[in-house]
Design goal:
The complex is a heterodimer of chains A (about 325) and B (about 675).
Chain A: H1 3-34, H2 44-54, E1 57-60, H3 65-84, H4 100-120, H5 124-155, H6 160-169, H7 176-192, H8 211-214, H9 220-245, H10 256-283, H11 292-313
Helix pairs in contact in A: 1-3, 1-9, 1-10, 2-9, 3-4, 3-9, 4-5, 5-6, 5-7, 5-11, 7-9, 7-11, 9-10
Chain B: H1 9-29, H2 34-61, E1 69-77, E2 80-86, H3 88-111, H4 120-139, H5 143-161, H6 168-195, H7 204-209, H8 214-232, H9 241-247, H10 250-275, H11 281-304, H12 308-335, H13 339-374, H14 385-388, H15 390-403, H16 410-423, H17 431-463, H18 480-498, H19 500-515, H20 520-525, H21 543-564, E3 569-572, H22 590-600, E4 605-610, E5 622-627, H23 628-649, H24 656-674
Antiparallel strand pairs in B: 1-2, 4-5
Helix pairs in contact in B: 1-2, 1-4, 2-3, 2-4, 3-4, 3-10, 3-13, 3-18, 4-5, 4-10, 5-6, 6-8, 6-9, 8-10, 9-10, 9-12, 10-12, 10-13, 11-12, 11-17, 12-13, 12-17, 13-15, 13-16, 13-18, 13-19, 15-17, 15-18, 16-17, 16-18
Classes of the chains: A mainly alpha (about 325), B mainly alpha (about 675).
Chain lengths: ~325, ~675
C-alpha cells in the first residue's frame, strides 16, 4: 500500500460523494429542458442538502433506534459501493474487498435497511413503500447480478477491476452477450434508481410512490443522507454502466495524476448518460405497479439470454 | 479402561453421547422438578453439546490427520455389533450439531416452563434422546446402527413435535411427519440393500469396496435421494415440514430445522460421494433441477405465510433446496473429474449448512421468545416488538440479515461461494449441461433475492411498526437464559461471516474425503483477510475489510454531520403526509406484504377465493392459498389407499365360518400347486 494508491482511492471516493448530487442536478435540468419547463439550477441538489442538514431532525415518537441508524448505514453502504466501482481507475486499493457479487450484496444491504426503516414508524405509506421497494428489488437484484455475470463470464473474473481492464483492452467489436446485457442493465438501472417507467422521483401523489414513500417520515439530516444516498446510487449505477459497457479512457494505474486525466472523460460520459436518462424518462410513461414485475422479469430474462448467447457463440 | 488423556476423539464423543443419555434419563427420575430440569439438566446438556463441538473441531484440525478413528461397540445383535467411525465428514456435522445444539439447549433451559403439555422430565428425556441419536447417526459405520439411530431420531422427534398433544392439529402434524419419515426410512433401507451388492455384509466399509454397475449405483442413488429427501423436505416430499416444524415447541423447531435437516444432507453426502465410488453427470442435473424447484417453491410459499413459524419452515425448505443445488453442482463436476470445482461447490454446500444451522435456529428461538412474551404467533397480531423486546429484536435482526444473505454476515459468504462455483463452470462437456448451469445460477440469484423479501417481511411485521394488538405493549423480553442462548447463536452468524478462511480450513478435510480435493490451500494462499478461491485478481471478498469500511464511513458521516452542522433532534407524532388518523390497523398486514408475491407467482398456488356479492347479508372476503402437491399428489394417493383398503375390507366379513373357508381354499390351492 503506497501513498499514491491511497490518495487515488480517496480521490475516487471524494469525486463520487461530491459529484453525485451534480449528476442528479444535471439529469433534472435535462429533463426540464426536454419537457419545455424552465430548468432548476444545476447546483440545486447541493443547496437542498445544505438546507436539510441545517434543519432540525424530527423523529416520530415511537421510532426505534433502527430508524435513526438506517440513513447512516444506507449512506455508508453506497459510499463504499462508489469506492469499489472502477470509475476513474481500475487499480483501486479497496477493489479486493468486494467483487461484483459483493457489490450487489451492498446494494441489497442498503435496500433492506431502507425498507426496514420505512416499516419502523408503522404508517400506511411507509409499509406500502417498503413492500413495493422489495417487489422491485427481488427482480432487479438478480437481473443486475446476471448482467454482471455476463461480463464475468467474458472475462473469467468477478472482480470489477479485472472485468473492466479486460473489456477495455480487448479489440473493439460488438459482443452479442454484452449488447443484450446492456439493454437489461438499462432497464434495471431505471427501476433501481426510481426512474420514470417504474417510479417517479418528482411525484407528489403518495399512492404512486415507491422510493419517496419509504422516506416520507424522514426529515432534516436523516432525509439529507437518504437523498444524498439516492444520488450516490444513481452515480454508482451510471459508473457501473460506463465501466462495463464503455470503459475506454479509464486509467489503469493508481496514480492520482492519471486519474485526473481520466476525470474529464468520466464527466463527459456521465453528462451524456444523464442526458440519455432524461430522454428515456421523458419519452416513457409510468407503468402500473403490477406491470413492473413484467418489465423487470424482461430485464432478468434478457440478462440470462445474454449468458446463454455467450455459451452458444462463445462471445 | 484407559485414562481420559489417552482417549481418542471418538471416545470423547461417545462419552458425551452417553452422558447426554444419562442427562435425559435423569429427567424422568423427577419429571416435575423444575429446578432439576431447567437449571441443572438442560445446562448440563448444553455443556455436553459444546464439548462435542470442541472435540469435533479438534478432530477436524488435528486428530483426524492420521486417518479416521473407528470403534466397535458390543451392543446390538449377536454377531452384529455397532460399527462406529469418526471421519472429517462426521466430525464436521458433529461440530454443527454441537455448536447449534448448545445454544438451543441453553435457550431451552429458560424456555420449558410449564412443559408445553408434556411433563418437563419426559420432554427432557425426549430432547436429549433426540440430540444423542443425531450424534450417533453421524458416527454410524454400518447400515444397522444407522437405521436404528435414524429411527430413534424420528421417533424421539415425533414425540417432541406432539408435546402439546391435546391440540388436534398438532396430532395431525405429528402423524404426517411420522408417515413421511417412515416412507423415507424404507427407501434408505432399500438403498443400503442395493449398496451391499448381495454380499450380506452391511458395514459401510464393505459398501465402499463394492463396484456397482452404473445402473445399480443409480438405483442406490435415487433411493437415497428419495429417502434422505423425505427427511430434508425436498419437493414433493416437503409436505410434512411446514406442518411439523411449527407444531413443535420452539427449541425443538430450532433443533429440527437447524440440525435434523442436516442429518439428511449428511446422509446424501455420505452415500452420494463417499460410499458410492462413481458419480454420474445426470445425478447432478437431477439434483440441480430438484434443488432449484425446492428452493423456489420454499421461498415463494414462505413469502405468503402469515404464521411466523410456518414462514420460517418454508424458508428452511428454500435453504435445503440451495444446499441440494450446491451438491448437484458437485456431483456434476465430480462426474466429469473436475475435482477442484467440485470441492468449491461442496465447500459452499457445507458452509451453507453450517450457516443455516445457526441463523435458522436463532430465528426459530426468537419466535419462541415472541410466543412466550406475547402469547401470539400470527403475524397479523404482532408488530412493534423491537421496542418491548429489544434483546430478542436485535438478535432477530442479526438472524434475519444473515438469512437474507446480506454481507458481511454469514449467509452471504456461502451464497457468494455458490455463485462463484457456478461462474467458473466453463468447459463442461455437453452443450445441454453448459446451458443448464447458467439458468440454474439465475434461479439461485432469484431465490436469494426473494429470501431478502421474506426476511424483510418477517422482521418488519413482527418487530417494527406499531403493535397491532393493544396487549402487545405489555409483552416482556426474554429471560436471562434465553438471552444467552440467542446470543450464543447470533455471534456465530457474525463470526462465520467475518472469518471465512478459517471456516474453509475446517471444511477442507471434509471435501478431501468426499472428492479428493479441498479449497483450503488456495484460499489460505491468499491470506485470511481475503477470501479468494482462485487468483485474487479474479474474485475476492473480504468481509472484515467490508465491515470495517462500512463502520468507518458510518462513523465519518456521523461525526462529519455533527461537526459541520448540528445534532439536534425532536420527537413528534408521525407525520404520515398529514393524514390526521393513524392507527395500527392501517399498516400492511402479513397478507398485504405477501400479496405482490402471490400475484406474481400465482401459478404456484392453488388459490380459493370467496368474493362477497352485493346481496350478501354478511359479506366476507376469504382467500386460501394452498399447495398444488397436496391436491394433485397426496390427496389422490390417500384416496387410492382408502379405496384399496375398502376393497380389502370386503374380505373381512367378521364371521368365523368365512375365515375358515379362506383357510380351506388356501390349503386347497397350495395342495394343487404342490401335487400338480
Amino acid at each position: 500500500m503506497t501513498f499514491s494508491s491511497f490518495a487515488a482511492q480517496l480521490l475516487a471516493i471524494v469525486v463520487a460523494v461530491l459529484g453525485a448530487p451534480l449528476l442528479t442536478g444535471w439529469v433534472n435540468q435535462c429533463r426540464a429542458w426536454l419537457q419545455n419547463r424552465s430548468a432548476p439550477p444545476l447546483l440545486l441538489p447541493y443547496r437542498t442538502l445544505h438546507k436539510l442538514f441545517n434543519k432540525e431532525s424530527i423523529v416520530a415518537d415511537h421510532a426505534t433506534p433502527l430508524f435513526r441508524i438506517s440513513p447512516y448505514i444506507v449512506f455508508a453502504a453506497l459510499v463504499l459501493a462508489c469506492g469499489i466501482i472502477p470509475s476513474l481507475s481500475t487499480d483501486l486499493l479497496l477493489a479486493p474487498a468486494a467483487d461484483a457479487i459483493a457489490l450487489v450484496g451492498l446494494f441489497a444491504l442498503a435496500r433492506v435497511f431502507m425498507s426496514l426503516a420505512a416499516m419502523d414508524i408503522g404508517t400506511a405509506f411507509g409499509t406500502l413503500g417498503a413492500r413495493r421497494e422489495m417487489l422491485v428489488g427481488f427482480l432487479a437484484e438478480p437481473a443486475l447480478l446476471m448482467v454482471l455475470f455476463n461480463a464475468a463470464l467474458m472475462t473469467q473474473a468477478t472482480s470489477l477491476a479485472s472485468i473492466v481492464e479486460t473489456i477495455a483492452n480487448q479489440e473493439f467489436a460488438i459482443y452479442p452477450s454484452l449488447a443484450v446485457a446492456g439493454v437489461a442493465f438499462t432497464m434495471v438501472s431505471l427501476a433501481e434508481n426510481a426512474r420514470v417507467p417504474v417510479d417517479n422521483p418528482t411525484t407528489h401523489l403518495e399512492l404512486t410512490m415507491i422510493h419517496e414513500a419509504m422516506i416520507l417520515e424522514y426529515s432534516g439530516r436523516h432525509l439529507a443522507l437518504m437523498e444524498w444516498a439516492a444520488s450516490l446510487k444513481l452515480f454508482a449505477y451510471s459508473c457501473i454502466g460506463i465501466a462495463i459497457f464503455f470503459p475506454w479512457g479509464i486509467s489503469e494505474i493508481d496514480e492520482p495524476v492519471g486519474m485526473l486525466l481520466a476525470l474529464p472523460v468520466l464527466v463527459a460520459k456521465l453528462a451524456l448518460g444523464g442526458a440519455l436518462l432524461a430522454l428515456i424518462e421523458t419519452l416513457s410513461a409510468k407503468m402500473r405497479i403490477f406491470r413492473v414485475p413484467e418489465f423487470l422479469a424482461g430485464a432478468f430474462l434478457l440478462a440470462v439470454i445474454g449468458m446463454l448467447v455467450h455459451f452458444l457463440l462463445g462471445a | 479402561m484407559t485414562a481420559p488423556t489417552d482417549w481418542l476423539a471418538i471416545d470423547w464423543i461417545l462419552a458425551s453421547v452417553a452422558a447426554l443419555l444419562a442427562v435425559g434419563a435423569a429427567g424422568i427420575a423427577r419429571p416435575h422438578s423444575f429446578f432439576l430440569i431447567a437449571r441443572v439438566l438442560f445446562p448440563l446438556g448444553a455443556a455436553l453439546n459444546a464439548l462435542i463441538a470442541v472435540v469435533a473441531v479438534v478432530a477436524l484440525t488435528v486428530a483426524l490427520n492420521s486417518g479416521p478413528e473407528v470403534a466397535v461397540l458390543p451392543l446390538g445383535l449377536p454377531g452384529l455389533p455397532f460399527h462406529l467411525r469418526l471421519d472429517p465428514l462426521s466430525a464436521f456435522f458433529l461440530f454443527l450439531l454441537g455448536g447449534a445444539g448448545a445454544g438451543i439447549s441453553i435457550f431451552a433451559s429458560g424456555y420449558f416452563r410449564k412443559g408445553e403439555g408434556t411433563a418437563p422430565g419426559l420432554l427432557c428425556l425426549e430432547y436429549h434422546l433426540f440430540v444423542a441419536s443425531m450424534a450417533m447417526v453421524m458416527l454410524a459405520d454400518d447400515a444397522y446402527v444407522f437405521m436404528v439411530m435414524w429411527e430413534l431420531m424420528a421417533l424421539s422427534s415425533f414425540f417432541l413435535v406432539t408435546a402439546n398433544h391435546t391440540i388436534p392439529d398438532i396430532r395431525r402434524a405429528g402423524y404426517l411427519y411420522l408417515l413421511v419419515a417412515h416412507v423415507g426410512a424404507i427407501a434408505i433401507l432399500l438403498a443400503f440393500g442395493v449398496l451391499q451388492a448381495n454380499t450380506g455384509d452391511y458395514t459401510f466399509a464393505n459398501m465402499r469396496v463394492q463396484e456397482l454397475s452404473p445402473f445399480w449405483a443409480s438405483v442406490a442413488f435415487l433411493l437415497a435421494l428419495f429417502g434422505f429427501g423425505a427427511k430434508a423436505g425436498i419437493v414433493p416430499l416437503h409436505i410434512w415440514l411446514p406442518e411439523a416444524h411449527p407444531a413443535a415447541p420452539s427449541p425443538v423447531s430450532a433443533l429440527m430445522s437447524g440440525v435434523m435437516l442436516k442429518t439428511a444432507i449428511y446422509g446424501m453426502l455420505r452415500i452420494g460421494f463417499e460410499v458410492l465410488q462413481l458419480q454420474l453427470w445426470w445425478w447432478g442435473v437431477l439434483a440441480l433441477v430438484i434443488g432449484l424447484v425446492t428452493a423456489l417453491f420454499g421461498v415463494v410459499f414462505s413469502a405468503i405465510q402469515s404464521d411466523m413459524k410456518r414462514l420460517l419452515a418454508y424458508s428452511s425448505i428454500e435453504n435445503i433446496g440451495l444446499l441440494l443445488v450446491a451438491m448437484g453442482l458437485a456431483w456434476l463436476f465430480s462426474a466429469y473429474g473436475m475435482s477442484s470445482l467440485a470441492a468449491l461447490a461442496l465447500t459452499a454446500a457445507l458452509y451453507h449448512a453450517l450457516n443455516h444451522a445457526y441463523f435458522k435456529s436463532l430465528l426459530f428461538l426468537c419466535t419462541g421468545a415472541v410466543l412466550h412474551g406475547t402469547g401470539e404467533r400470527s403475524l397479523g397480531k404482532l408488530g412493534g416488538l423491537l421496542r418491548f423486546m429489544p434483546w430478542v429484536g436485535w438478535m432477530a435482526l442479526a438472524g434475519a440479515l444473515a438469512a437474507a444473505g446480506l454481507p458481511p454476515l454469514n449467509g452471504f459468504v456461502s451464497e457468494w461461494l455458490l455463485l462463484q462455483s457456478f461462474l467458473f463452470t466453463l468447459g463442461l462437456p455437453g452443450t445441454f449441461v453448459n446451458m443448464l448451469v447458467p439458468v440454474v445460477a439465475a434461479g439461485v440469484a432469484l431465490v436469494a433475492a426473494l429470501g431478502g423479501y421474506v426476511m424483510v417481511k418477517f422482521y418488519g411485521v413482527i418487530f417494527l411498526g406499531q403493535p397491532r394488538e393493544p396487549n402487545l405493549a405489555r409483552s416482556h423480553d426474554a429471560g436471562r437464559w434465553e438471552r444467552f442462548g440467542l446470543a450464543w447463536l447470533a455471534l456465530p452468524c457474525l463470526l462465520l461471516g467475518l472469518f471465512p478462511a478459517h471456516v474453509i480450513a475446517l471444511i477442507d478435510p471434509v471435501t478431501r474425503v468426499l472428492v479428493g480435493e479441498g479449497a483450503g490451500p488456495s484460499v489460505a494462499a491468499n491470506g485470511w483477510v481475503f477470501l479468494a478461491p482462485f487468483a485474487p485478481d479474479r474474485a475476492s471478498y473480504s468481509p472484515l475489510l467490508f465491515l470495517l469500511l462500512v463502520i468507518a464511513s458510518y462513523a465519518l458521516t456521523f461525526v462529519g454531520v455533527r461537526r459541520l452542522y448540528h445534532g439536534r433532534m425532536r420527537n413528534a407524532p408521525p407525520w404520515d403526509c398529514g393524514y390526521p388518523l393513524l392507527n395500527a390497523r392501517m399498516q400492511d398486514t402479513a397478507e398485504g406484504f405477501g400479496q405482490p408475491i402471490r400475484q406474481v407467482f400465482e401459478p404456484f398456488f392453488r388459490i380459493e377465493r370467496h368474493l362477497p356479492s352485493p346481496f350478501d347479508r354478511q359479506p366476507y372476503y376469504e382467500l386460501r392459498a394452498s399447495d398444488h402437491f397436496w391436491h394433485w399428489f397426496y390427496l389422490p394417493i390417500a384416496r387410492i389407499v382408502e379405496h384399496t383398503s375398502r376393497l380389502v375390507g370386503f374380505l373381512q366379513q367378521g364371521r368365523i365360518a368365512t375365515y375358515l373357508l379362506y383357510s380351506f381354499v388356501t390349503l386347497l390351492v397350495m395342495l394343487v400347486l404342490v401335487f400338480r
